[in-house]
Specification:
alpha+beta; Alpha-Beta Plaits; 2 domains; about 35% helix; disordered N terminus
C-alpha cells in the first residue's frame, strides 16, 4: 500500500520544542527563498547544518506564515464576558485586512464566552503571527487557538 503526502497527518508545533536541525532547515529555506544564499551548500554551511539533514526535513517542516498562502483560518477564542468585547475583537481582525466569514459565539457562562471566527486572510496586511499576538494582547482575551487552515 502506497502512502502519499496527503495521507499524512500534520501538527502545529511551537518553535521551542523543535529539534535544532528542523529550525536550521527553516533558516536555510528562508535564506534560499530570499536570495541570501545562492545554493543549498552555501546556506547549510552558514547555519552549520548537514546537507543530508536539510534534505531530510525540507519537505516536512514549514513556517506558520505559509498559512497566509492558504487564505482561510479558523480561530477559537476564550473571552471574558464584558460589554463590547466581541466588537473590539472584530475591529482588530478587520483592521488587519482579514475578511470575517463566520462568527459563532456561545452563551456566556460563569463570566466566560467562547467565540469561533473563520477568516479569509487573502488581503491580510501583516503576518498571521503578528495578528495572533495583537489578539492575545487584548485584556479580555484569555486564550486564542488556531483550529485549522484551508484553501
Amino acid at each position: 500500500m502506497k502512502i502519499d503526502k496527503f495521507d499524512k497527518k500534520f501538527y502545529l508545533v511551537r518553535e521551542d520544542v523543535l529539534p535544532e536541525a528542523m529550525k536550521k532547515t527553516l533558516e536555510v529555506k528562508e535564506m534560499i527563498e530570499r536570495g541570501k544564499a545562492e545554493s543549498v551548500w552555501e546556506a547549510v554551511h552558514r547555519v552549520d547544518l548537514s546537507r543530508s539533514a536539510y534534505y531530510k526535513y525540507r519537505d516536512t517542516v514549514f513556517p506558520f506564515s505559509t498559512i497566509k498562502n492558504e487564505r482561510l483560518i479558523s480561530l477559537f477564542f476564550y473571552l471574558e464576558d464584558r460589554s463590547g468585547t466581541l466588537s473590539q475583537l472584530l475591529r482588530v481582525v478587520a483592521s488587519s485586512g482579514c475578511n470575517i466569514l463566520t462568527i459563532h459565539q456561545t452563551i456566556p457562562l460563569q463570566g466566560r464566552a467562547n467565540v469561533t471566527l473563520s477568516l479569509n486572510t487573502s488581503d491580510i496586511q501583516m503576518e498571521i503571527e503578528d495578528l495572533l499576538s495583537d489578539l492575545r494582547k487584548l485584556e479580555f482575551v484569555e486564550k486564542v487557538e488556531v483550529l485549522g487552515t484551508g484553501a
